[in-house]
Design a protein that fits this description.
The longest helix has about 35 residues, at about 15-50. Helix 2 runs antiparallel to helix 3 (about 55-60) and helix 3 (about 55-60) packs antiparallel against helix 5 (about 85-120). The strands form three sheets. Strands 6-5-4-3-7 form a five-stranded antiparallel sheet. A three-stranded antiparallel sheet has the order 8-10-9, covered by helices on one side. The chain has a two-stranded antiparallel ribbon with strand order 1-2. The mean pLDDT is about 80. A hairpin with a 4-residue loop joins strand 5 and strand 6 (about 230). It has three domains: about 1-180, no CATH class; about 195-245, SH3 type barrels (Roll), CATH 2.30.30; about 250-330, 2-Layer Sandwich (Alpha-Beta Plaits), CATH 3.30.70. The protein contains eleven helices and ten strands. With about 350 residues, the protein is of the alpha+beta class. The chain is elongated, with a radius of gyration of 38 Å.
């Protein structure tokens, strides 16, 4: 029995081989149990939250292949053997390549999961889904390119010249496609940050309209006069955008003027009359009404109220009812609205003696 255990196989006694296999088997069992436990914990966490990142981590863990764990376990067992330097180096290289490949596959699954999450959002149109698909593809392309370069380096290939060539090519392409790339990344920023969405009414500088489409390079806006406005995504993000669709309340300010011959008692009554008229509206919160100024041909009153519904048509309907009610109320009180007038005094010169 002792003779059998002391049998030399590839420079190692049989007992050391048994020890190495035992350690490898134990390591494989530990890895398998840990993988299963971590996957269950992450899966449970993913079911409790609405974020995509724990789902992506769950996908990445699910992609860890049993063969990868087996190779790692065997490599751990091989540490208990005395191996030739060349063989040991090859084992280390093989393990490194397999680990790099596994990491690339895991990250690839995570990227795909994140891409599917954003593409499946109900408020995304076809153009933005295409944008996300393009960026997902670019991310996977970069990922596998890096993995291939690392594998080649571990195989002993000199990748310095290759990296230099890739770097020069990337710089040249980047300079040639600078505007296109900036618009592409601006499109991704619009998708993730959502400063506006399809159907939002926006004002950009002196242009305004409703967002119709968000594409890879441009965003199309339908103006109030009917024509389509096309903005480069990067130019749009560097501009100051006013998004009226996100408005929760609308502040309304308007003025009206009455004639200078309006009695003082009526002037004191006007703010209360305006307040009563505005408070009769259900979707309105009254703010203030004041005798504001003495103008050239009128005594001006300023009225401020808040529309609780930001819809523009609702605001115009409300303002119309308020205006008609003001006309009726002033008519009942014999208060006249002012209009531009000019009084000319003519003085006759005394006749010459």
């Amino acid at each position: 029995m002792d003779a059998l255990l002391n049998t030399n196989i590839l420079g190692n006694e049989l007992v050391r081989w048994i020890l190495a296999l035992g350690v490898a088997a134990l390591a494989l069992i530990v890895f398998s149990v840990l993988r299963r436990w971590i996957r269950l914990r992450v899966k449970t966490l993913a079911e409790r939250t609405a974020t995509v990142w724990d789902d992506a981590l769950s996908e990445a863990l699910a992609s860890v292949h049993g063969l990868t764990l087996t190779v790692i376990a065997l490599w751990i067992g091989s540490r208990f053997l005395t191996l030739e330097p060349t063989l040991d180096s090859r084992l280390n290289t093989g393990l490194t390549i397999i680990v790099i490949g596994q990491i690339a596959l895991a990250v690839n699954h995570a990227l795909q999961r994140v891409g599917r999450f954003y593409r499946d959002l109900s408020d995304l149109d076809g153009g933005r889904r295409t944008t996300l698909s393009a960026f997902t593809f670019l991310g996977r392309l970069v990922l596998f390119s890096l993995a291939i370069l690392l594998i080649l380096e571990n195989l002993g290939v000199d990748i310095t010249a290759l990296l230099a060539g890739i770097g020069i090519g990337a710089v040249a392409i980047g300079l040639a496609l600078q505007n296109i790339l900036s618009d592409l990344f601006a499109s991704l920023s619009i998708i993730l940050d959502k400063p506006f969405e399809i159907g939002d009414f926006v004002v950009v500088d002196d242009l305004s309209g409703t967002i119709e489409n968000i594409g890879l390079r441009t965003t199309r806006v339908r103006s109030l006069s009917g024509e389509q406005l096309v903005f480069a995504n990067n130019d749009l993000l560097t501009s100051r955008i006013r998004n009226y669709k996100r408005m929760k309340e609308r502040r309304v300010v308007f003025t009206l003027g009455v004639t200078y011959d309006t009695p003082s008692s009526s002037l004191k009554e006007i703010p209360e009359v305006l307040k009563e008229i505005i408070e009769m509206e259900s979707l309105v919160r009254f703010d203030r009404a004041h005798f504001k100024a003495f103008s050239a041909s009128s005594l001006d009153f300023e009225v401020v109220y808040w529309m609780l519904d930001p819809d523009y048509a609702t605001f115009m309907d409300t303002q119309q009812r308020v205006n008609l009610a003001i006309v009726d109320a002033f008519s009942q009180r014999n208060i006249e609205f002012a209009f531009p007038t000019q009084t000319v005094f003519v003085q006759h010169a005394a006749p010459a003696s």
